[in-house]
Design goal:
mainly alpha; five-stranded mixed sheet; 21 helices; 7 strands; elongated
Amino acid sequence: MGKAGVGQDSSALTSAKPNAAAGFVAHVRRPAMLLAGLAAITLFHFFVFPGHSWLAAQTDVPDTKLYLPMIERLASPGFLSRDLVATHPTVAYTVYDEATLFVRKLLRTDFRRSLAVQQLAFRFAAVTGVFLLARAARLNRPLSLVAALLANFGSWVPGVGVALSDPDPAPYAFALCAVLLGAGFLASGRPLSAGFAAGIGLLYDLRIAAPFWIIVILAAIISRSSRRLMRASFPVFIVFVLLLGNIAQLQPGVTEPQMLWGRIPPAIAMIRRFRSPQLWIGSWHWPAFAACFLVAGFCAWGVLRLWPRLDEAARWMFAGLPLAGFLSFPLSFVLLDLMRAEAIPLLQPAVLLLLPLAFCAIACTVAGLHSLRERRWREVALLFAVVALLPLISPARPQQRDTGNLSNWALANTWGASMFLFPDAGRASDPAVFRAQSKRAVWVDWDTGKLADASESFADEWFRRWQDTMAGDYSTSRLARLLSLPIDYYVLQRSHAVPGVRPVFMDNQYVVYDANDLKTALRTLH
């Protein structure tokens, strides 16, 4: 009897081993397959649609073309010492510059790849956030992956001029991805992970992450059932606020404190309204208003369609974040257009219209998938039509000339403190792209004016340079009047080549003249 018992125990033990191994493999396989699915969606978004770009952003807020020279100068103070952008950095309240420098040093790579690595990581965070929000709305895993794929952020915010998924690696786009991940974690009942994700968003762009934390604080005050969940995020929030404050205090290269109180002087308000009319709600055209209200309406419909399926934490995210974003619309009008508050051009609260647009895509996609399961075909058609049409809300991109050959020539053949001017470029982005590629100073360009919202003295200087050199139509006589400026090289389009003057560089796009050669030739002509 004893021997038989031992035999039975040993056979049960040997049969249990394969079962345990199979269970372990199944336990590991599901998360691995999920991560693989999320990674595949991220790669699709990164390489296919909406894709990614480099120095090609068409947004109306500071972008990589302006941030990169600032970071270049922080990394190598000898570069761009005469450039208006690089010597007036606006990266005090963001970890964008420190993170980019750290990743570049860690991977021993250039700034382009350093930013691309961050962009991929944040795109993955956004995809994961949408997946978690779909799961919180009671979709199963496969359909939640479909939702993460279809809720594609290829659209723009009307009027404000920012993209839900900016092809360029911009800090506001990184922050939005982090906030979506935080919202997904909180809707799934993971407050510490949510706090960490939204805290990273706070470090990259304070404006984008602020609504998340305001909602968390309000929920903890108002809702007893949510208080315990929300309060768990507070220590993380305090840590990131202190970290952001330390980063701002230790920021090198800041030449002027940013004014946050008082009213904008009329002259500065005129300059800012001239350069960045999208920040002034009163300057918008009626299609922008119509698009914003349509997006808000479809967002509300999608959220209401999901409402019975959401628990309280998920409801705070699905309702609170888009509502906070939409309220920034009248808030910006009152504080900027009517009161001319000094802080508003810097904070740009209307950028938060990103949130209702993002949740319109998410809620309509998730509601559409639920309607598909329930065979409500009319709802399916309408909801998916909204999702399909959202990416069409985007401006026509102007054609951008290739500055690669010009930048390579300047980098190899001119001294590091050389000053360039593109007097016939108008409002094109060519000079800003050239500055970022060549590490050479540009006297003034249209893109540089985006920084006028951060500083009154910068706004005044930029506008004076713009009016003196680039406003209006180009002419040779105007070029002659510019030769007294401290500029070393003048870059003109091939069609504006100056007869009788030998260029120091020429390709199928541009001709470049040394200032001394132009002075000699034009003095003879005039």
